[in-house]
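Ligand-bound model needed. S-adenosylmethionine.
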Amino acid sequence: MSMFKVWLSSVQSVAEQCVQSVAKQFQRVWLAVFKVWLCCVQSVAMLCSNVAGQCSSVAKQCSSVAKQCSSVAKQCSSVAKQCSSVAKQCSSVAKQCSSVAKQCSVVQVWLSSVQCSSVAKQCSVFNVQVQVWLSSVQVQVWLSSVQVCSSVAKQCSVFKLFSVQVWLSSVQCSSVAKQCSSVAKQCSVFKCGSDQHKLASVPVYFSEHVEEVKHQYLETFDPRHYHRTFYSYLDEEVKFFLRRYHEIFTNDPLLSARCRSRRRVLEFGCGPVPVYAASAAFFSESITMAEIIPANRSEIESWMDCRPEALDWSPFFSYLASLGDGRKEEEITERLREVFQVVIPCDGTLEEPLAPIRQRYDVIMTTLCLEFATTTKDDYRTMLGRVVNLLRPGGVLLMAGALGNTSYSVGSTRYPSVSLQKEDLEEAVAAVGLRVASMATLERLTSSKEKPADHRGVFFVAAEKQGEPGV
Ligand SMILES: C[S@@+](CC[C@H](N)C(=O)[O-])C[C@H]1O[C@@H](n2cnc3c(N)ncnc32)[C@H](O)[C@@H]1O
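Prediction:
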C-alpha cells in the first residue's frame, strides 16, 4: 500500500512534471506563434500603411491630373468657340464672295452688252454707208435708163423731122416708142418693186434713237412709281390683256394641243409686273422672265420670294382667278412661284437679246414693251425680229400692246413710243416670218387722267413662227 502510495506520488509528480513541461513547451510554442502573428500583423500593418501612403500619393496625382484635364477641357471649349466664330466668319466671307461673283457676272453681262452696242453702232454706220451706196447705184441705173429713153426719144423726134419716108419714120418711131414705153414700164416696175421690197423688209440695224430710249429707261424708270401710275387698280384694258392671255393658254388649240416638253415660256420686257405670266402658270412647267432694268428685276424677285416689301398685285390675280376653272387666287400665285425659273437681263437692241443666254423658247409673251422701246416703225420691226429669233421654229408669239400711242408719263418723266396702227402691226408680224393666228383690238376705255398716255386703243396678237410643225 505504502509502495503503491509512493508509486502513485511519484507517478503524480512525474505527471505534474510532464504537465508542467508540456505547459511550458505549449507556452513557448504559443508565445512563438504569437510572436510570429505579431510580426505578421506588424508587417501587414506596415504594408497597409505603405499602400495607404502610395494610395494617397496616387490620389494626389489623380487630383492634379483631374485639375489638368479640367483646364485642358476649358482650353478645348474656348478653342471650339474660336473655331465656331471662325466658321461663321468663313461663311459670311463665302456669302460676300458669292454676292461679288453675282455682281461680277452682272458686270460681265453689262460689259458684253456695252461692247455689243458699240459694235452695233459701228455696224449701223457701215449699214448706212452701204445703203447710201446702194441707193446711189439704183438712182444711177434709173437715171441712165431715163437718159437712154430721153435720148432715144430725141433721136426719134430728129428722125421724125428729117425722115423723107414718112411711113418708114412713123413705123420705126412707133416701134421705138413702143420700146420706150416698155423701158418706161420696166423702170416703173423696178421702182415699184424696190418700194415694195422696202415695205416688206426688216432693217438689220437700228436707228440711234433706240439707244437713247434704252438709256432713258435705265436711268429714270422707277418701278414703284410705275405701279402706282398704271397698276393701282384693275382697268378694262388690263382686263382685256388678262382675258386674252388666259383664253389662249387654256382653250386655244394653238397652244393647248402642245406637248408638255414644248411649253417653255419666256416673258420679254416684263417690267415689275408678274401678273401676265400668271396666266401661263398652269400651261407651263417653266416660265422665265426677262427685263432690262435691274430695279424691275428686283421687284419681280421680291414678289416671287413673298417678301413683305413686294408690290401688291392681288386685284389682278383675283381677276385672273375669276376667269378660270374654279382655281383660287392663292393656287394661281403658288403655282406661278413654283414654275417661275429666273428673271434674267434682256436687251431688245442686241442681236442676241438674252446674251449670253442662247436658249430658244416655245412661247414668248410680251406686253407693252416693243412699241415703248422704239420710236420708228423700222426700229419696231427690227426689235420684233430679234425677239422672234428667240422662238424655236413653230413657236408662238403672244403680244399685247398699245395702238396710236406716242408717249406716256410716269410722274414728270415722259417716255416716247412708236405710234402703231393695226396695219403696221400686221405688216411687221408678217415681215418677221410670223403667221397670225388671231388678232383682237379694243378701243381705248380709260381716260388720260387715269392713264397718262395718248393711246387710241390696245391690241392682242397670237402668231406662229413659220417652220416645223408647232405641236
Ligand atoms: C411700258 S413698260 C411695260 C412693262 C410691263 N411689260 C407692263 O406690261 O407693264 C416698257 C418696258 O420696256 C422695257 N424696255 C425698254 N427698252 C428696252 C430694251 N431695249 N430691251 C428690252 N426691254 C426694254 C422697259 O424696261 C419696260 O419694262
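The pocket of S-adenosylmethionine is lined by residues 213-214, 217, 269-271, 273, 291-293, 296, 346-349, 367-369, 372-373 (CB under 6 Å).
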